[in-house]
Amino acid sequence: MKRAHLVLGLFFLSSTAIAQSKRIYSDEGFDTKKVEKLYSIESPGKQFCSRMAALYKVSDSGHITQNEYNKFLLDFDHMVRSLNTGNVSIPAKLVSISNILNEINNVAYNIDGHRDAIYHLAAPIYKASTENWGDEVLNMSIANAYFNLREYVVSMANDVKLSRALAVIDRNPVGFGPTAPSCDYAVSLNPAASKDKIDIFFSNIGLFYKATKKYPVDGLLAGPIIGWEGYKDESESLMNILKAHADMNNNTAIHVQPTENKTGKSMVVKQDLNSDAKWFVWVFRNNKLYYSYMVEPCSDVSRCRVN
After folding, report:
1. Each residue's pLDDT tens digit, 202-227
2. How far is Cα 120 from Cα 145, in angstroms, rounded to an integer?
3. In angstroms, what CA-CA distances link 292 with 48, 72, 127, 287?
4. What mean pLDDT do residues 45-61 have?
5. Rounded CA gap, 65 and 111, in Å?
6. What is the per-residue pLDDT across 227-238, written as a single tens digit (0 to 9) for each?
7. CA-to-CA distance for 189 and 185, rounded, in angstroms?
8. DSSP H/E element including 120
9. How far apart are CA 35 and CA 262, in angstroms?
């Protein structure tokens, strides 16, 4: 009898091991792109955007009820009051976001669409702060949330009640830290590139996400754009969004178009950027995106060379 139990036990363990083996070692086929992405060295911009993407993924909790939303606002206020950070500009920005959330609560909390949209814009801030994702991630999650809150309210202009929130957002600006230094960032263009029509933009992180919706993100933030001449439509969409925001007063993008180069020599274009943010530089050659990178003003490397 014991032998029978032993055989059955071994059979059960063997079957379990086979099942586990199938789950763990299931053959999905060899994917060259997956392997290359796993082992390739990523630029700082790609690494940072991967961290931000991870934050947004784990912050997405699905539909949120009225009671859950009201509790979130209370928890958010408590987080703002108890925050301990080395970045002196972050507390003031969090107060602004908290003020916005509370002032538009009467409109947001009892309408499913508005409540969900606004919650999912603000939730990453709470998670980044309470789970200590680091000041740079927290700072950028605040900037992105503010940008998207404004974009969302503007897009809902037909909703009379919600449209009043635009004045609330403008009364509680989230800008650069007033004590943060600004530094020149230089874009050096070699003669071959600068003889063509060159447009240079600098944008913040919120606009990066909006502008790249129609552009293959995998090809960005590594510097030179591989096969740049083949992305006419994608580049046009990207440039139109950057140009539209560069013309706005809230300065979510900066457009620098150098004068025509007749010297046949390389040229340098400089732009003063606030160091309280991460910036994305976009270089268009003959209206097609030619170069993209994430830059940090006042860092050890404050220039890029575009060949």
Report:
1. 999 999 999 999 999 889 999 999 99
2. 9
3. 14, 37, 29, 14
4. 93
5. 10
6. 999 999 999 999
7. 13
8. helix 112-130
9. 46
Distance, in Å, from the CA atom of 110 to the CA atom of 66, rounded to the nearest integer, reads 6
Strands 182-189 and 303-306: parallel
Q: Which two tokens stand for residue 66?
A: 């009225």
Spatial separation of the C-alpha atoms in residues 147 and 238, rounded to whole Å: 17
* Exposed / middle / buried, residue 231 (Cβ in 10 Å: 0-12, 13-18, 19+): buried
Check whether 30 has a pLDDT greater than 70.
no
Give the C-alpha separation, 99 to 92, whole Å: 11
Check: CB of residue 127 under 8 Å from CB of residue 55. yes
Helix extents (H) in 173-231: 191-194, 205-211
The string of DSSP letters for 217-233 reads: GGGSSSEEPTTGGG-HH
Alpha carbon distance 119, 101 (integer Å): 9
Q: State yes or no: pLDDT of 185 exceeds 80.
A: yes
